[in-house]
């Protein structure tokens, strides 16, 4: 329905405008009945609906809803279509419950595997996280229900999350931590963004002008509203000025009155408040227009989707001697309390009341002719029960195969607290070791929200990472174990061998007031590759019951300008005996750079379904951003001239296909030429390349002569060689080196004239 929001705004009193900037209660916005402005409802997500039966009554029970796999699992599918489908299903449940906004997706980067909330975050890689988030948003909003992309930004730990100051340099902030939000906001057009509790570089996220106004609104063009995480307000008026529209939940009339008083005193320009109200009205009426009275969703269909999603998210980490898939004729010992009492979701605000729960033992019993159960360990506590281990060992010895269900209990990872180690409960470790000692055909199925150490890995033949697979995780696990579904998940994060190996180990979780992101750009696989560290399992890793061959790569051009796109065609074949889905991963590798960069970065992926013997050609399109880094001189993305290798394969550690493209930059990597501008920067620009080459080479001769002179006067031939070595780095010198003893003998006045001429050539004098 078309509405004149400016007309509505003109009829509002100052007090009514201010009132819209905070909630009615825990989950609703305020209404203005006389002007027909309704209240809308929002609830927790992001992997299912967590709604209280009465949004105004905190004591009311949570309504049943489908619990889908959490973010860690969904990202492991690397399947844009699947995550969009899950988003659509969640939206349908919102429509039935008259909910207008679901709070998710959560797209914060997995900086450390210790973060207690990693189970609901997607990835360590910003491109993958951004793509998953964008498609989640598209799925939900296609049904007329809004999303709230969270937690903006650099909310990468639970320790002191309400106050910690994240110190992040500009490149790292933009290339890693903001990049994961960009897709959901720009491509997904998310209705709302939720700001985090923490500070970023000295300002709380709720009043951070750089994050909310400069990046989100101006650079990305976000048209919706920004709301606080619950209780994440600091100073109300300061937040409104910085781009925060909605404070949640309602804490009383005082904060609304602060806004009124600030306008009346002149502290706050009423135009700022008016813009906030227009954004609020836009989202409120979007929510109203999406309502469908009497809508009901198909609970069975949603459960089947949850089962299919969970199976497609599982990652086969190890499968020696092709132990998996099992067949129905094998006798199987099903061991571990999680087999009957699955851990299927994380703790905290995303905790859902499921419509039903599938247990793995029940599903396996329906597929196997002979399946028996042993508990193995207690669900609560970490006491080693030798009697339970002995019972499990006895059962395992009597069967063809043992399948152990293990992982992390809820007490080990939850919103609100970070982990202090990467270990499983000792009771489970001892169980796995004891069973594997008597049963060579042992498989382990993991239920955990983030990486764990695996000291028992060499002793077992197969490991299936199930993450927190939602309410259908039990039946989905049986589908994969018995080959009804060919595993196709790939790790969206690196599994380290030990905690001390992780990139942020020395800087997590920081001190009492701040945490320094000292690892910079080198998060996840970027760090392991740069350090030549061998992780337990690399980013992108995942096995299958079939095999794939990467047969060819072709570029549509070998030279491009940064204003052009590059098409990459990759041919992949299923060389095995069963149908399967393969995640084709494309990374871009700069072969030389003027700045520190990761060895390679993920810039494309596609999931293809192939029958035995079938080949498919997957096409990727790369643009300027695929080659660019965030240039802190121009405060924007910049793709520098040079050669880039496009590498493609099944994981970050295995990229058998490669091709090289030469990119020519048409942009200027600085705002103005000054005495500190480097030769290599000028050499990369056609308009200044000739001057830079001549000036640099002219001063090179002088350096060589001085080297020879010093060598002769001191009787040391090595000095001449040293000066020759210095020459190789000349291109990194600044223009100021043209004046003085080591340069070309220019006076300061001559250098100033040269700088003016260069700025004129580049039209930078204005």
TrEMBL record:
PROSITE patterns: GLYCOSYL_HYDROL_F3. Keywords: Carbohydrate metabolism, Glycosidase, Hydrolase. The keyword Hydrolase applies. Pfam families: Fn3-like (PF14310), Glyco_hydro_3 (PF00933), Glyco_hydro_3_C (PF01915). Gene3D superfamilies: Glycoside hydrolase family 3 C-terminal domain, Glycoside hydrolase, family 3, N-terminal domain, Immunoglobulins. GO terms for molecular function: beta-glucosidase activity. It comes from Paenibacillus albilobatus. Belongs to the glycosyl hydrolase 3 family. It comes from the Bacteria. SUPFAM superfamilies: (Trans)glycosidases (SSF51445), Beta-D-glucan exohydrolase, C-terminal domain (SSF52279). The keyword Calcium does not apply. SMART domains: Fn3_like. InterPro entries: Cellulose_deg_GH3, Fn3-like, GH, Glyco_hydro_3_AS, Glyco_hydro_3_C, Glyco_hydro_3_C_sf, Glyco_hydro_3_N, Glyco_hydro_3_N_sf. One of its GO terms (biological process) is carbohydrate metabolic process. Residues 582-652 form the Fibronectin type III-like domain. This is Glycosyl hydrolase.
């Amino acid at each position: 329905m078309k509405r004149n929001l400016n007309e509505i705004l003109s009829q509002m009193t100052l007090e009514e405008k201010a009132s819209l900037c905070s909630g009615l209660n825990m989950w609703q916005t305020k209404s203005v009945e006389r002007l027909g402005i309704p209240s809308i409802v929002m609830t927790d997500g992001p992997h299912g609906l967590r709604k209280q039966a009465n949004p105004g009554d905190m004591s009311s029970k949570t309504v049943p809803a489908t619990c889908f796999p959490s973010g860690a699992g969904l990202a492991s599918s690397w399947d844009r279509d699947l995550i969009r489908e899950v988003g659509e299903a969640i939206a349908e449940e919102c429509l039935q419950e008259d909910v207008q906004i679901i709070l998710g997706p959560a797209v914060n980067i997995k900086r450390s595997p210790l973060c207690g909330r990693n189970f609901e975050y997607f990835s360590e890689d910003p491109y993958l996280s951004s793509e998953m988030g964008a498609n989640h948003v598209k799925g939900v909003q296609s049904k007329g229900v809004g999303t709230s992309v969270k937690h903006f930004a650099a909310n990468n730990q639970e320790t002191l999350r309400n106050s910690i100051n994240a110190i992040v340099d500009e490149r790292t902030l933009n290339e890693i931590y903001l990049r994961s939000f960009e897709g959901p906001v720009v491509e997904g057009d998310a209705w709302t963004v939720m700001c985090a509790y923490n500070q970023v570089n000295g300002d709380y996220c709720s009043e951070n002008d750089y994050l909310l106004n400069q990046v989100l609104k101006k650079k990305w063009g976000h048209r919706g509203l920004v709301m606080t995480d619950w209780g994440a307000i600091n100073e109300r008026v300061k937040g409104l000025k910085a781009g925060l529209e909605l404070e949640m939940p309602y804490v009383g009339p005082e904060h609304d009155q602060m806004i009124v008083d600030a306008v009346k005193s002149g502290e706050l320009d009423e135009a700022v408040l008016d813009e906030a109200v227009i954004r609020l009205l836009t989202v409120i009426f979007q929510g109203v227009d999406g309502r469908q009275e009497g809508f009901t969703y198909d609970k069975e269909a949603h459960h089947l989707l949850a089962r299919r999603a969970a199976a497609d998210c599982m990652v086969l980490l190890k499968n020696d001697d092709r132990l998996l898939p099992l067949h129905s004729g094998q006798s199987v010992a099903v061991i571990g309390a999680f087999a009957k009492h699955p851990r299927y979701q994380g703790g905290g605000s995303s905790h859902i009341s499921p419509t039903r729960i599938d247990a793995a033992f029940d599903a396996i019993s329906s597929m196997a002719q002979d399946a028996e159960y042993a508990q193995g360990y207690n669900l609560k506590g970490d006491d080693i029960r030798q009697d339970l281990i002995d019972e499990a060992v006895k059962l395992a010895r009597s069967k063809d195969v043992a399948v152990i269900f293990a992982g992390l209990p809820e007490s080990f990872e939850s919103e609100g607290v970070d982990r202090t180690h990467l270990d499983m409960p000792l009771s489970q470790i001892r169980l796995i070791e004891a069973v594997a000692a008597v049963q060579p055909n042992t498989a382990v199925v993991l239920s955990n929200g983030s990486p764990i150490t695996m000291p028992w890995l060499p002793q077992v033949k197969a490991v299936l990472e199930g993450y927190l697979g939602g309410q259908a995780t039990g039946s989905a696990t049986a589908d994969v174990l018995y080959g009804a579904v060919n595993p196709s998940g790939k790790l969206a994060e690196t599994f380290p061998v030990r905690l001390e190996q992780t990139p942020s180990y020395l800087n997590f979780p920081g001190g009492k007031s701040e945490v320094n992101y000292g690892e910079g750009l080198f998060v996840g696989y970027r760090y392991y590759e740069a350090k030549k560290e061998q992780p337990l399992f690399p980013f992108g890793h995942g096995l299958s019951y079939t095999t794939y061959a990467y047969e060819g790569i072709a570029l549509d051009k070998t030279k491009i300008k940064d204003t052009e796109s590059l098409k990459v065609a990759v041919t992949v074949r299923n060389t095995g005996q069963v149908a399967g889905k393969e995640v084709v991963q494309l990374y871009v590798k700069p072969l030389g750079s003027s700045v520190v960069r990761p060895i390679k970065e993920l810039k494309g992926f596609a999931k293809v379904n192939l029958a035995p013997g079938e080949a498919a050609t997957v096409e990727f399109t790369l643009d300027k951003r695929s080659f660019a880094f965030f240039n802190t001189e121009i405060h924007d993305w910049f793709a520098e001239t040079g050669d880039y290798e496009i590498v493609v394969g099944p994981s970050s550690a295995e990229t058998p296909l490669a091709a090289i493209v030469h990119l020519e930059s048409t942009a200027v990597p600085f705002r103005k030429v000054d005495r500190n501008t480097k030769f290599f920067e000028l050499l990369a620009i056609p308009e200044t390349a000739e001057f830079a080459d001549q000036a640099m080479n002219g001063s090179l001769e002088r350096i060589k002569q001085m080297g020879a002179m010093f060598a002769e006067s001191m009787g040391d031939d090595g000095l001449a060689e040293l000066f020759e070595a210095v020459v190789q780095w000349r291109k990194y010198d600044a223009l100021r080196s043209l004046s003085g003893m080591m340069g070309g003998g220019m006076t300061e006045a001559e250098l100033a004239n040269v700088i003016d001429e260069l700025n004129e050539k580049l039209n930078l004098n204005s």
